[in-house]
Design brief:
Elements (H helix, E strand, L loop, with lengths): L4 E6 L9 H4 L6 E6 L5 E7 L2 E3 L6 E6 L5 E7 L6 E4 L5 H9 L6 H7 L1 E6 L2 E8 L2 E6 L5 E5 L4 E4 L4 E7 L5 E8 L2 E6 L3
C-alpha cells in the first residue's frame, strides 16, 4: 500500500532560480511535501530538478519526459529503495486536502495494540498509548509517534517506515509487521 504524498507550491516564497523551471511561472514559490496527517516539510533546492529535506537527507528528483514536462517524482531516502511516483492530474488544492486528511482510530482499537513485539531476542518494539496517539520505542532507539493511515496501518515519519498490526483467527492482535527499507519484518507479540 502506497502512502499518498503531494508536492505543492507554498508561500511566502523566496526567490530561487532553481525552482522556476518546475513551477513554470515568473513569480517564484517554494516547494513543500505534504503527507497525510503530518505538517508540510520544506524542500531545499540542490540542482535544477533536485531537492532535499534538511531534516532527513531524503532527496526528491522530478523526472521529465522527452518533451521536458514533469512526469513523476523520485524519492531517494538515505537508506532504502527509491520510490518513483507518477504525476497525476489532481489539482494542488485537492491533493493537499487528501494529504492532510487524518485517520481517527478509536481508543479501544489503539488499546489492543499496546504491548511488546519481538523482532529478535535483542530487539523489541514496545508500543504504548498516550491519549489518542500510539508511540513505539525499539530497543536502544528513541520513542516515535505512530501516525495512523488506517485502523491497522501506522506510519513512522522519522524512520520512513510503516507498522501494520495483525490479528489471529480469534481477532486478538498477535504480531506487527515493520515495513522499512523494502523489507517486511514480522514481530510476534510477547506481552
Amino acid at each position: 500500500m502506497r502512502r499518498r504524498v503531494s508536492v505543492a507550491v507554498v508561500s511566502p516564497a523566496p526567490r530561487d532560480e532553481r525552482i522556476n523551471p518546475l513551477l513554470g511561472q515568473r513569480r517564484l514559490g517554494s516547494l513543500a511535501l505534504a503527507e497525510r496527517g503530518l505538517p508540510r516539510q520544506q524542500l531545499a533546492p540542490v540542482a535544477r530538478d533536485e531537492f532535499v529535506f534538511s531534516n532527513t537527507g531524503t532527496r526528491v528528483r522530478f523526472v521529465r519526459g522527452a518533451d521536458g514536462a514533469i512526469t513523476g517524482m523520485l524519492l531517494r531516502p538515505r537508506i532504502g529503495p527509491e520510490d518513483l511516483s507518477p504525476r497525476t492530474q489532481q489539482s494542488v488544492d485537492s491533493a493537499l486536502a487528501a494529504a492532510s486528511a487524518t485517520v481517527t482510530v478509536p481508543g479501544e482499537v489503539l488499546d489492543r495494540y499496546v504491548g511488546a513485539y519481538e523482532l529478535s531476542p535483542t530487539f523489541v518494539i514496545t508500543v504504548r498509548r498516550e491519549g489518542s496517539v500510539l508511540h513505539a520505542q525499539a530497543t536502544g532507539q528513541p520513542e516515535v509517534a505512530l501516525v495512523p493511515e488506517s485502523e491497522t496501518r501506522f506510519f513512522i515519519r522519522d524512520a520512513n517506515a510503516t507498522i501494520v498490526f495483525e490479528t489471529d483467527a480469534s481477532g486478538a492482535v498477535d504480531r506487527l509487521v515493520l515495513h522499512q527499507g523494502g523489507r517486511q519484518m514480522p514481530a510476534p507479540r510477547v506481552r
